[in-house]
Amino acid sequence: MNSRSGPPSLAAADETASIVRLYAVTDGRTRARHHLSMHTVLGPGRRPPRGMSEESVRIVELCRQRRRPLVELAGTLGLHVAAVTVLVSDLIDAGAVNVHVPDTPGKERDVQMLQALSAALKRRYSGATAEAG
């Protein structure tokens, strides 16, 4: 039986570094507060608050150039879609980016529009609670 305990391969080291970077970028969070699909189109909001991460600033800059789907932002930044979803969710809460809901007259509004409305209401009335009845 030949057991070698040599140094880890370069590919394994790169994978570990990538995981650590994603953890650092999202502050260890793995779930976004808002349900966003890969196809969610994002546009500019008001100016971002100071102290944002480099990745968040880049997302805002890209959205100011033109509206972009979340998956395009992930590809442009070279980050996993899940990490970009967490960052975008934070940016929606801060008002730095907005979910673009296309105007489709004559058709029922879809779930994405309701989610955008919900996010905006939660941002504006963060302390409010709903009561059944």
Automatic annotation (TrEMBL):
* UniProt superkingdom: Bacteria
Question: Would you tell me the protein name for this molecule?
Answer: DUF742 domain-containing protein
Q: What InterPro entries does this protein's entry cite?
A: DUF742
Pfam families to which the protein is assigned, alphabetical: DUF742
Database matches in PANTHER family:
DUF742 DOMAIN-CONTAINING PROTEIN
